């Protein structure tokens, strides 16, 4: 019996497979994919100053989840929180020298992983895939349908 094609299931499975694969590769560094992505993101946005709240918004995650992520990176001495010179109450995230050493390795890993994901696609197919995914993302952002559990 052939399983029914379900786009939501397919996206969940691909996301899960990507996370498992990436976590295995980053395991030797004692990091998860989300921690690696966070370090790269913080490093790329240090110039203007990046707060924990900015990271929450960029990663579309709850405050407690990002707080736990940043705490773990701090314990590993990969990021630090510094007071914002313009507002002492606001803490800016900075990548430590040890964290910066990993950024190059992350960049190389993510480039290789993207190559693996697109293996067998022609450049035109890859461009088309990106266009389709962007359209799906736009559709989700425009979705006004609400769920009424009382029906």
TrEMBL record:
<protein>
    <recommendedName>
        <fullName>HTH marR-type domain-containing protein</fullName>
    </recommendedName>
</protein>
<dbReference type="Pfam" id="PF12802">
    <property type="entry name" value="MarR_2"/>
</dbReference>
<dbReference type="InterPro" id="IPR036388">
    <property type="entry name" value="WH-like_DNA-bd_sf"/>
</dbReference>
<dbReference type="InterPro" id="IPR036390">
    <property type="entry name" value="WH_DNA-bd_sf"/>
</dbReference>
<dbReference type="InterPro" id="IPR000835">
    <property type="entry name" value="HTH_MarR-typ"/>
</dbReference>
<dbReference type="InterPro" id="IPR039422">
    <property type="entry name" value="MarR/SlyA-like"/>
</dbReference>
<dbReference type="GO" id="GO:0003677">
    <property type="term" value="F:DNA binding"/>
</dbReference>
<dbReference type="GO" id="GO:0003700">
    <property type="term" value="F:DNA-binding transcription factor activity"/>
</dbReference>
<keyword id="KW-0238">DNA-binding</keyword>
<keyword id="KW-0804">Transcription</keyword>
<keyword id="KW-0805">Transcription regulation</keyword>
<feature type="domain" description="HTH marR-type">
    <location>
        <begin position="4"/>
        <end position="138"/>
    </location>
</feature>
<dbReference type="GO" id="GO:0006950">
    <property type="term" value="P:response to stress"/>
</dbReference>
């Amino acid at each position: 019996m052939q399983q029914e094609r379900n786009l939501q299931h397919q996206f969940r499975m691909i996301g899960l497979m990507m996370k498992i694969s990436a976590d295995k590769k980053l395991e030797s560094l004692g990091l998860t994919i989300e921690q690696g992505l966070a370090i790269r993101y913080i490093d790329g946005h240090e110039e203007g100053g990046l707060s924990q709240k900015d990271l929450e918004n960029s990663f579309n995650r709850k405050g407690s989840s990002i707080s736990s992520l940043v705490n773990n990176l701090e314990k590993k001495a990969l990021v630090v929180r510094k007071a914002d010179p313009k507002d002492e109450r606001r803490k800016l995230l900075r990548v430590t020298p040890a964290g910066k050493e990993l950024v190059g390795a992350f960049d190389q890993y993510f480039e290789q992983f993207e190559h693996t994901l697109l293996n067998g696609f022609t450049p035109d197919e890859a461009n088309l895939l990106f266009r389709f995914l962007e359209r799906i993302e736009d559709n989700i952002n425009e979705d006004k349908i609400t769920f009424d559990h009382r029906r």
